[in-house]
Known about the structure:
The protein is α/β, with parallel strands linked by helices and about 280 residues long. It has a domain at about 25-145 and about 225-280: Rossmann fold. The protein is about 45% helix and about 15% strand. The protein has 12 helices and 8 strands. An 8-stranded mixed β-sheet has the order 2-1-8-7-3-6-4-5, with helices on both faces. Strand 1 (about 25-30) and strand 2 (about 35) form a beta hairpin. Helix 7 (about 145-155) runs antiparallel to helix 10 (about 195-225) and helix 9 (about 175-190) packs antiparallel against helix 10. It is globular and about 50 Å long.
Amino acid sequence: MPKTFALFFVMLCTLTLPHSARAGQTITRVSDRQTVTLQQVITKAEAADLVLIGEVHDATRHHDLQLEVIRELRARKLPLAIGVEVMQSDCQKELDAFIAGTMSEAEFRPVFARNWSYDWSLYRDIFMFARENRIPMIGLNVPKELVIKVSRSGYASLTPEERKNLPEGTSCDLNNPHTDFLKQSFGEIFKHNAKGRVFQYFCEAQTLRNSGMAMSVSRYLKRAPKTKIVVLAGVWHAVKNAIPEQLARDGAKLSTLVVMPEIKEFSDGKASPDFVDYLASFPSP
């Protein structure tokens, strides 16, 4: 594997920056920089159609916060579903079987491992809570072999047959605000690459995933239109100009709430309400 692509693929799979967190998060409302309680966030989440909670994939406290929000919404007896980046849309049957209790945890773990490279233990509490409470889970991600192909050769390299495997309406239009957002965060890494093709393909792969995950959300809402969906995804997918922007471009009229961990790109007042509604910060290790 070429060195440049190896670097790119690591970034593509993780879409995270190193971060460690512990219990006792402080939540800041980005619009006015005021500290708020989790209950205030939940009140806003109750009124939203779509709640996105970003994560650094290997940060346990980010997953703890995700589960905390899900528990609170469940306690309010709202029609609820959980959309997850960690599962691909073509594995929905296995995910449904696990939630229904017809597939054991031991049987499901190899399915999870085929979908996601991070350890099951990071996500187990969320999956088990959904199973115990029969909360539907939605595999949002597009098949990873297609993401890999786009990251290497661009969206145009996909065959008509491969595009049939994507959620209906999936596109890879780079003319969107998220591309500029990625340039600010990752452009420096790719600036010396000839003709910028690696960065272009990186953006196309990101756009493919955002578009595919948005379409998976839309497809579920057509079947269950009164359901509140909590989306758990890496920070670069959960910001407002990623999945929510793709939903809006596809004509979905949903009110959204975005909660993010405070990574360096959002620290020191750099977070904008155009991208994030609430920031959760955690004590240093």
